[in-house]
Task: structure prediction
Amino acid sequence: MALDRVEQEAIDNFQGQQNPEGGLEVNDDNLKSVGIQVALKMGEMVQRARADLGSIQFSKKADGSRVTNIDKNAETLAREIIGRSFPDHLVTGEEQGGIADSERYTWAIDPIDGTNVFLSHENTAGVSVCLFKDEVAVMSVVYNPFTGELYYAFGSDRSRLIRQYGFSNEVTGDDLPLQSIEPEQASKFVNVHPVIRNFPPNKRLRRALVDGKIDKLLQIGGSPAVELASITKGHFTTILNWGKEQADPWDLAAGVHIVRNAGGVVTDIHNRDIELVGHSGLVVASINKELHDLVLGIINQAEIGG
Result:
């Protein structure tokens, strides 16, 4: 339940309205601390925007998706913090782009993952940060500022969940997955995102629910990164229909890194591990391998038999 030293330092800086120092040495502690603080700072900006709706302006991108000035401002803030702390690092982001270099530290940022639900006052949007080096995820953070939950993974270390409770300043840290309330029986909950009309696996999943093969069928919606990170609590499997467009560095990588470091699996429909960048098509992610295999069997039946 206690925060470790680096987590506590990051939280203290954030609560004290201090930014990370400039020109930091590139070491594990500094990378972890800055990654957590960048996510917290962006999340704070996103959350505060809800209190001043007149400050939010939005438009549509070429692909039809919506973007707000808060997306852009939060990404700019992240770039400024990273640029001060690690001047030699690169940044690539959802709103301002950028070039990734596999031989250099590159931060991939999505300032608001789930802009539509942010605009509609739902609480399933989030902030996603992933630091790459040599095409490997070094540090990943997914933060939901509306629930006060920050998930992160560093290197090959066990994933962690930092939580703020209610209106207090009490902050705790836990290894993931969380301890099950019912350890003798895994919850057979399945989340589908997004819900697409005539999506072939839906019929089989509904039938599996009626037949008692799964316990609940969820449609949480919102940020794919938050959905992926949330399964590390240990209670549901997510089926994410990513579609035909290949995932960018700021899309799936952070969530996938966090799931895998919590002991979970993230595969395609054929049970092959997905790549952090460039994936297209279905994603199936779970902490529970037995439930993961069960869900794969159900949706593959849909793929084959309709």
Remarks:
- Residues 188 and 196 are 22 Å apart (CA to CA).
- Helices lie at 5-15, 28-49, 69-85, 115-119, 201-210, 224-230, 253-261, 289-305.
- The longest helix spans residues 28-49.
- Residues 189-305 form a domain with the D-Maltodextrin-Binding Protein; domain 2 fold (CATH 3.40.190.80).
